């Protein structure tokens, strides 16, 4: 976000950030020669859906005492869970939890609408990769959430992302 409050994308070159824009066709970005007067770095994209895979790190599953399932655990986070990586994680007023936890994750950002994409074409839809923080209220996830992952993982702002997209 620039000092006028306008949102945009940028590319860091040496010490300056240059504005970039989404290509109209084919996906990806195209550079400009305009420099950006950045006030705050936000998440790299505006999200409609955040799909997550649970128990995707063997070590974490082992330390949790959970076996890795045959089929992956898929859950969603609300788009409102996304926030920039520097803002504080403020727990919701109604959340009474002593078991708030976090995990670093690799975020795969899909850059264009897709459905029923073949494995061979999947990477053609990836805009880039970013860092994510998967924040969880473990007691809401396990005891108070009926075993549903989304209950303890989708509070605002339980998904800090970015700021870079590579």
What does this 3D model show about the protein?
By secondary structure, the chain is mostly beta strands. It folds into 2 domains: 1-40, no CATH class; 50-162, Fumarylacetoacetase-like, C-terminal domain (Fumarylacetoacetate hydrolase, domain 2). The protein is 10% helix and 34% strand. It has 3 helices and 9 strands; from the N terminus they run ββββαββββααβ. The longest helix is centred in the middle third of the chain and has 7 residues, at 58-64. The model has no long low-confidence stretch (mean pLDDT 86).
Short description:
This protein is mostly beta strands and 166 residues long. It is built from three helices and nine strands, in the order ββββαββββααβ.
SSE order and pairing:
Blueprint: E1 9-13, E2 16-22, E3 29-35, E4 50-54, H1 58-64, E5 73-77, E6 82-83, E7 100-110, E8 126-137, H2 138-142, H3 149-153, E9 159-160
Parallel strand pairs: 6-9
Antiparallel strand pairs: 1-2, 2-3, 4-5, 7-8
